[in-house]
Amino acid sequence: MTKSVTVKELMERLNLELVCADEGLDRPILTSDLSRPGLELTGFFSYYPEDRVQLFGMTEISFSEGMEPEERLKRYRQMCTRRTPAFVVSRNLETPKELIQAASEAGIPVLRSRLKTTRLSVYITNYLESKLAPVISKHGVLVDIYGLGVLITGNSGVGKSETALELVKRGHRLVADDNVEIRKEDELSLIGSSPEIIEHLLEIRGLGIINVMTLFGAGAVRSSKKNYACCAS
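-> structure tokens emitted (233 positions)
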């Protein structure tokens, strides 16, 4: 199943202002790549990444201000396709009324942020990469040992959780027990975490389920652990 993020989730996560077309907030975002539609404003649509969030900064807005209103509206209408998730304007720039008109006609949300374009681009990309990254689940225990995420695997009953408990007693940190979710955000890193419902919990034979944070303090657990490629092979 293809993973997606709704425009509403992006808006709420980054505290973006909704300018128009709230009926399109459930539109899906399927890729973390962004588009700066400068070429499209000139009329070049031979390659238009319509499935990406379209990000407008000072350059795009300034260029469009030099166009005739009819031409500007035409270009914005061309950018509005059924696959276009949203338009985002940075730096609290005034949103062109033609963009609002075209987006409203197509039901595509226009959002605005006070952040500078480069920083906003980084925040959007990082959020989308995190949410859209492929995830697998592994049976095992993930422990942070001297800053390195170590996944302990084996058949049920061999003592994985007991080993993790002994490591925690020696000052290492539990990340996940039993079910480890491993997310590949990029080609260089893997991030392991625990499902929220069993976070901080260890199941020990003879004792039952214990809360590691309650017994050993917040320093004995962490919510996730990133390993880079040089350490994950």
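The domain at 135-232 is CATH 3.40.50.300 (Rossmann fold).
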